[in-house]
Every structure is written in structure tokens, then in C-alpha cells.
Amino acid sequence: KELALRVPLDTAPEIDGPERLGTFLQAVNTLENLDLAMKPASKWDNPVLQSFIQGNGAALDALRDLLGSFDWHPHHAAWHLEDWGEHRAWPHVRVLLQARVENLLRRSEPRLGLEAAMDLIRLSRHLEEMWSWPSYMLRAQELHLAGVQSCAIVLRDAQLAPEVLKGLQEQFMALMPSDEHLQGALAACYLHQKKLILGAASGEPLDTMPRGDILGRPGRLFFKKQETLGLFAKASQQLRDQVAKAPFSLDPPVPKKTLAGNWLEPNGAGKAYFIEQTQPLWEVPVHHHLAQARHQLVTVLFAVRRYLAEHQKLPGSLDELRPAYLPDVPVDPWSGETLRYDGLKGLLFSAGDDLVYAGGRPTQPPLADPAEPTLEIGVKPAVAVPGSGS
After folding, report:
1. Which end of the chain is more exposed for a tag (fewer CB within 10 A), N or C?
2. What confidence tens digit (pLDDT) does each residue in 255-270 have?
3. What global pTM score does this model have?
4. How far apart are CA 243 and CA 179, in angstroms?
5. Angle at Cα 75 formed by Cα 65 and Cα 64, nearest 5°?
6. Cα angle 229-233-237, degrees, rounded to a multiple of 5
7. Which of 179, 73, 180, 65 has its CA nearest to residue 132?
8. What number is the average pLDDT over the span 16-32?
């Protein structure tokens, strides 16, 4: 009962969200050069970048349709028919949308580039709200990281009008990764396994069975179903608790067990299946808190760049951004203190998952170091900024 999903029944007769998502994913042309795919788009030659963007014209048209003003109905039964979160195109989606941002920057269109970066965040939010398959939760976290990195690059390198930054900052702040959404997704992971293992006997609505299959699965493993399901229930509850806690007070991570030796134990096959299915989830709460820290850092970067555009100087401290540019100075989820700002070095940073401040560690792309997610503001003063260590 603690893992029951409390969402209203969606009685819409038909929805077109799954079809639109499928059309987009199937239209994405992959980047065959894997070495190139591992490099930031900023390192690509112009002809390669142009060719990749032009070859994905149909996919970008489908993206505009996907992110258009229609109701996704994220909890409709239709989303259970196909696991679009496991489609092979997702790694190429990230590459394509980041390349799209870089292409717009090279065309001297930073506003459009920032809006394109925001599309990654918007798509991440839509996936965050869909709980039908565990894969959507993982794809949402991957896209969010790509999105905040792209936003940071545009904000660092471009000069945009304060009113443009203000409007996009407000949209960005509304897309902060949500504890509530992730907790719902983790509860849904348990229900997903309940349907797979028990089928129609699960008592869950038949039209929400994965791929419409009402047969008990995976029966081929011959494990103890209720005992195995209990493992999934305990794991989902533990992971939900990790999301609710401040990360600096988290319990040690759930151990990453191996399959060795499990098969000869009582319900060994069930334990092995449980470990196989849950291993991708152990780091989800940590990635979530990192995503929140990164999101808050980019929010502050929006505000600093607005302040800079209006005053032609950096703020002496983050407190100077209140209330005109920020409702309040965001708290770093990894320390419980406000995010750090070094105006002399032109850096914003979080304590990161090692819980220790090291003065900021800029990376390319930005925010890549989980031990100290860091942003470069894009300008440094010629002299020290009073109070810049706050």
C-alpha cells in the first residue's frame, strides 16, 4: 500500500503522445563515427556539424511536434504498450540536440541556442513524469545533464538581453527535477515488476500490463514470486527514502551485489533476477541530487548574467541577486548551505557528492565533475570582488 500510485485515472479514449515520441525516435539518424560522438559538438568541424544537422531535419521537425502544445497524458494506459525509453536512438538524441545548440551558436543565434538547450530540459521533464517503464526515469536523468550543460555553455559564452534571460530563467526554474516525480517513478518500478511477475493476478488494471501481456512473467526463471516481489518492494521503499533525505545525510548506498553464488541459495533465481533488474537504479537518488545541484547552479548563472547585463559588473555576493534576480539564494543539496560563488575566479560551484568544497573545478563540458559541479560565469573582474567568497 505504501507503494500505491496516487494519480487520477486517465479516461481519455485515445492519446497521441506515444505515437509522437515513437515518430521522433525513429526519425533520428545516428552518428556513425563513435569517436566523434564522444567529443563535444564544439570540437566538430563545421561541415560535419552541418551534415549531421541537415541529415536529421525530419527528426528535428518531429521534435517540434513532440514538444508542441498538446497533452502528454503521462499516466495513460497507452504508455504501457511500448517501452520507448529503451529505444536505441536515445544516445543519439542527446548528441543531436547538443549539436543543434552548437550549430545555432556558430550561426550567431544565442537566443535560439538557449531555447534549443531548454528543449533538452523540457523533454527530460516529460519523461520524468511518465512512470510506465523504469527506462523513462533513466533517460530523463541523462537528458537533464545534457540540457544543463548546454544551457551553461550558452550562458557563459553569449551576451543576451536581460529581458530574454529573465523569461527563460523563469521557464528553467519551473523545470527543476522533482522529488515527488522521482518517488512516483520508483514506486512504479515496484508495480511494474508486480505486473511482470504476477500478471493478471497482480490485481493491477489489465490495460496497464507491460506490452499488454497478461501472462505471468518471467516464469522461465522458476523463482518464488511473492518472495522475489518482496525484494522489489523493499528496494523501492529504500530508494524513495534516499530521494527524500538531504544527500549529506544519506545512508550508505545499497550494495551492488553480484550474481555469484546466488543460484544455489533458496530462491537463488529470484534474487539473481532482482539484482539484474535493480542494478541500474541504485545510483538514481545520487544522480537526482546532483541534477538538483546542477539545476540550481544554472539558475544562479541566469541571475548573475542578468545582473552583469544590467550593471556591467559582477555582484559582490549572491545576496545582491535578491530579490530582483532570484527569489532567494539556492541551497546546495550536498551541504545544506548556499551555493558557493567566487567572483574573482568567475566560478559557481556545489560541494558535490564528496561533500567537500575544493574551490570549484571547471570542466569541459561544464558540470561534469560529480565531486564538485562547477560553472564558469564567463567573465572575471580585473580586481577582487568584495565578499566574493560567499
Report:
1. N
2. 444 444 455 678 888 8
3. 0.93
4. 6
5. 10
6. 170
7. 73
8. 94
Main-chain phi, psi angles of 78, to 5 degrees: -60, -25
Instruction: Count the residues in the chain.
Output: 390
CA angle 381, 295, 43 (to 5 degrees): 70
Q: Is 102 helix (H, G, I), strand (E, B) or coil?
A: helix
Specify the DSSP class assigned to residue 263.
T
Alpha carbon distance 135, 21 (integer Å): 14
B/e letters for 142-164, b = 16+ CB within 10 Å, e = fewer, are bbbbbbbbbbbbbbbebebebee
Q: Is the previous residue joined to 365 through a cis bond, with omega within 30 degrees of 0?
A: yes
Q: CA 357, CA 368: separation in Å to the nearest integer?
A: 16
Cβ neighbours, 10 Å, residue 66: 22
Q: Which stretch of 72-81, 249-258, 261-270, 334-343 has the lowest confidence by average pLDDT?
A: 249-258
pLDDT in tens, 309-319: 999 999 999 99
If phi over 0 gives left and psi between -120 and 50 gives alpha, with beta otherwise, what is residue 8? beta
Q: Per mean pLDDT, which range of 92-96, 167-171, 325-329, 386-390 is the poorest?
A: 386-390
Distance of CA 316 to the CA centre of its chain: 32
pLDDT at 260: 42
For 159, half-sphere exposure in the C-beta direction (CA atoms, 13 angstrom radius) is 5
SS3 347: strand
- The distance from CA 166 to its chain's CA centroid, rounded to whole angstroms, is 23
Q: Which of 207, 216, 214, 197 is nearest to 81 (CA)?
A: 207
Of 298, 307, 184, nearest to 240 by C-alpha is 184
- Do residues 149 and 297 touch, judged by C-beta distance below 8 A? no
Q: Residue 211 above 60 pLDDT?
A: yes
Residue with cell 532482482: 274
Q: Grid coordinates in use for 120?
A: 533538452
The DSSP code sequence of 185-205 is HHHHHHHHHHHHHHGGGG-S-
What pLDDT, on the 0 to 100 scale, is given for residue 259? 41
Q: Give residue 272's identity as a one-letter amino acid code.
A: A
What gap in Å lies between CA 123 and CA 63, rounded to an integer?
A: 9
